[in-house]
Amino acid sequence: MDSGPDSLTASSERRLPRNLLVTAITAAVLAIWVTVQGGSDGGETLPERPTIYEGATGYKWLSTQPYDATVPVTYDHCKPIVVSLNPVSAPPEGERLVRETMRDIAQVSGFRLEWGGHTSDRPLKMRRYGPVTVTWTEEAEMDNMTEDVAGRGGSTYLQLEGERRWYTTGQIYLSAPYFAQLSRDGREGAMRGILRHEFGHVLGLDHVEDPSSVMASGSASWKFSRDDLSALAILGTQPCG
Questions:
Q1: What percent of the residues of the chain are helix, what percent strand, and what percent coil, each to the nearest 5?
Q2: Distance of alpha carbon 116 from alpha carbon 102, whole angstroms
Q3: What SS3 class is residue 127?
Q4: Beta strands in 23-180 (DSSP E)
Q5: What is the distance between the alpha carbons of residues 27 and 88, in angstroms, rounded to a whole number?
Q6: Distance (Å, rounded) from C-alpha 102 to C-alpha 214?
Q7: Given its phi and psi angles, is residue 184 left (phi above 0), alpha (psi -120 to 50 degrees) or beta?
Q8: Backbone angles phi, psi at 226, to 5 degrees
């Protein structure tokens, strides 16, 4: 049998709320406007350290280990996860929001998310190694970026035969037209929620049904639920590679 590394990309997306999507981008913005109630960032207090709350079970993993379907695939938390940004087509507050999202997720998960600066890389079909890249894209650039998708995110894992799977690199690409509209409307909370959602996919979280979770597809929630926080803490406590 081949003993070389296998690789697979696990990714998912955040769709705009379908029940209120009437025409293109503007109707979707109205849907988030109502749900987020102004996009204010007030009212959220994050735990000072990774916390697994009692009774928290409302989370799912994008990929699991071949030897145990309850054990998630994620990054080696003993190594830094470098995140680079392609600023082309980013909204004015884009870099700040990415860096604040990195800070918040590092705090609640225990992962070390390090700023890797700017890059000219655009979304790639498959990579095995390298920084996690964040990019704003136009619909025509990516086949799977349609008008009802706010963003997509995921990571690639490697596995030597018989060993644990680890994510080694990832990508987030975001709808440039949609973020531009959110920026014009002052919807910072909505932008923050999408970034948290896609970073959750990169680390290994899948969609859930609970609309109060940032991992709900089509949800406009930007605040982490207790299930979100518990799932991120669980990912950050997986053994080192």
A1: 30, 25, 45
A2: 12
A3: coil
A4: 64-65, 68-72, 81-86, 113-118, 132-137, 149-159, 166-175
A5: 25
A6: 15
A7: alpha
A8: -65, -35
Name residues whose C-beta falls within 8 Å of residue 59's C-beta, 6 or more positions apart in sequence: 205, 206, 208, 213, 215, 227, 228, 230, 231, 234
Confidence of residue 25 (pLDDT cuts 50, 70, 90): very low
Residue 135: what residue type? T
pLDDT higher than 90, residue 26: no
Torsion sign across C-alpha atoms 108, 73, 113, 77: positive
Render pLDDT for 180-239 as a digit per residue (tens, 0 to 9). 999 999 999 999 999 999 999 999 999 999 999 999 987 667 899 999 999 999 999 998
Angle between helices 226-235 and 94-109 (to 10 degrees): 70
Residue pLDDT, tens place only, 87-119: 999 999 999 999 999 999 999 999 999 999 999
> In this structure, are strands 166-175 and 149-159 parallel, antiparallel, or unpaired?
antiparallel
Enter the tokens of residue 8: 């697979």
Residue located via tokens 């959602």: 197
